[in-house]
Design a protein that fits this description.
Elements lengths: L2 H13 L17 E8 L2 E8 L3 H4 L2 H13 L6 E4 L6 E4 L5 E2 H4 L4 H15 L11 H14 L8 H15 L6 E3 L8 E3 L5 E3 L6 E3 L1 H12 L3 H12 L5 H27 L5 H20 L12
Antiparallel strand pairs: 1-2, 2-4, 3-4, 5-7, 6-9, 7-8
Helix pairs in contact: 5-9, 6-10, 7-10, 7-11, 8-10, 10-11
């Protein structure tokens, strides 16, 4: 059965209505998945259609548990249906909302909202079900690429070894707290009343909180001024040398990890080669600079 047909079947089952047609007319974005807005019986919902290869990349049982925890503590959109086998999810659409990329991810007001929301998540009194280890995730992605008979960049192994060595030499301690691990500005949703939500908990797990901070900086391409504002809002003080090294290390780790993720999608036939190349070129630039001088600015690392 094609995924679109399966989504329609699940919609009809969830709402007990055999007349529902999954028409995909209102696309709501997404990279890992494809999201669509549908009006069903007078209520608007976001329908998640899982993207290619996600059944191998994502553990949906873990995601469902963590998704529920995030909802329990009021930071997630309301989920009304979750199929852990297919990854199809139905959530209530947040009315009159825009994501942080649309609302300006660099404004002081939004940076403060993002920092406060991340602090709340990282302080959940209930732990997530799993540990998010970027090196273990990377190994999993590499195995999938090999199973696809895909190829890596010619200097992939060399760059990965340099990155792992840099992280081992510079990060002496980490902490584990509930983390989202995919804090792109598109996942932060701002409603008309100014409340901020964080959606899409597929990659969530226990991790060092600097991973989430680093991801927002990198994905939002924050300026030096915005990075300083976010850091003060989140940490309450200027970055310590260790916090700065963690953020730099995790920014590079994210570029490597999501490069491998994009290669999986590329070899599955999806259009992710440009995305993959951009991230890898930035990693190549940053690892070269940082192995010579770890004192470069964080802001200089967000561009190619």
């Amino acid at each position: 059965m094609r995924m679109e047909e399966l989504v329609q079947e699940k919609l009809r089952h969830a709402f007990r209505d055999e007349s529902i047609i999954f028409d995909k007319s209102r696309f709501a974005g997404g990279l890992t998945n494809y999201n669509y807005i549908m009006n069903i019986k007078g209520i608007e919902y976001v329908i998640r259609q899982p993207g290619g290869m996600t059944e191998q990349i994502i553990d949906r049982k873990i995601e469902q548990v963590n998704n529920n925890i995030a909802s329990e503590f009021g930071v997630n959109s309301d989920c009304v249906y979750f199929d852990e086998h297919s990854g199809i999810k139905i959530s209530i659409y947040i009315q009159d909302s825009q994501n942080m990329a649309q609302a300006d991810p660099c404004s002081p007001k939004n940076l403060e909202s993002v920092a406060n929301l991340m602090k709340k998540i990282h302080s959940f009194p209930k732990p997530f079900l799993n540990i998010f280890d970027w090196k273990a995730e990377l190994s999993k992605y590499e195995r999938i690429i090999q199973q696809q008979r895909g190829q890596f960049f010619f200097d992939y192994t060399t760059l990965k070894d340099k990155l792992v060595d840099f992280v081992q030499e510079n990060i002496k301690s980490t902490s584990l707290v509930p983390c989202h691990n995919d804090t792109v500005p598109e996942n932060f949703i701002l409603d008309a009343k100014g409340r901020t939500y964080l959606i899409d908990w597929e990659y969530s797990g226990m991790n060092d909180p600097c991973w989430d901070v680093a991801a927002y900086i990198l994905e939002s391409k924050l300026s030096a001024e915005a990075i300083n504002y976010l850091s003060h809002s989140y940490f309450g003080h200027p970055l310590t040398p260790m916090e700065e090294l963690k953020i730099k290390s995790f920014m590079m780790a994210q570029d490597l990890l999501w490069t491998a993720w994009a290669l999986i999608r590329h070899y599955n036939g999806d259009d992710f080669l440009e995305y993959c190349t951009i991230r890898y070129e930035r990693l190549r630039k940053n690892i070269k600079i940082l192995t010579k001088s770890p004192n470069c600015s964080i802001a200089s690392m967000v561009t190619i």
